[in-house]
Design brief:
Elements (H helix, E strand, L loop, with lengths): L1 E9 L5 H17 L3 E17 L2 E13 L4 H10 L3 E8 L6
InterPro entries: Ribosomal_bS6, Ribosomal_bS6_sf, Ribosomal_S6_plastid/chlpt, Transl_elong_EF1B/ribsomal_bS6
GO molecular function: small ribosomal subunit rRNA binding; structural constituent of ribosome
Family: Belongs to the bacterial ribosomal protein bS6 family.
């Protein structure tokens, strides 16, 4: 298992209930791939560097999770099917926790 973090930018017009449902779906996808979500941090609505869908703001969510590197592509496929995800970035988290 490798530590990863993903920053997801969601549509800022989503209700809190819908946003929580989307995060729950992400957790479910990771668990179905035999991974584990370690931490979810809601960064809130922030200004975007450039417009996406004629909007200058997005709802940022940062999630730390563990997953087999061979299964990351399957996770990407699931994320791409979610129409409320505007952008996302997955990166290895090489940070050593003390």
């Amino acid at each position: 298992m490798v530590n990863y973090e993903i920053l997801i930018i969601y549509d800022p017009t989503l209700t809190q209930e819908t946003l929580e449902e989307r995060i729950s779906n992400f957790k479910k996808w990771v668990e179905e791939l035999s991974g584990k979500v370690e931490n979810v941090e809601d960064k809130g609505i922030e200004k975007l560097t450039y417009e996406i869908n004629k909007t200058t703001q997005g709802h940022f969510i940062l999630i730390n999770f563990n997953l087999d590197p061979l299964k990351v592509e399957e996770l990407r496929k699931e994320i791409k099917l979610d129409e409320t995800v505007w952008r996302y970035m997955i990166k290895k988290n090489d940070e050593v926790k003390v």
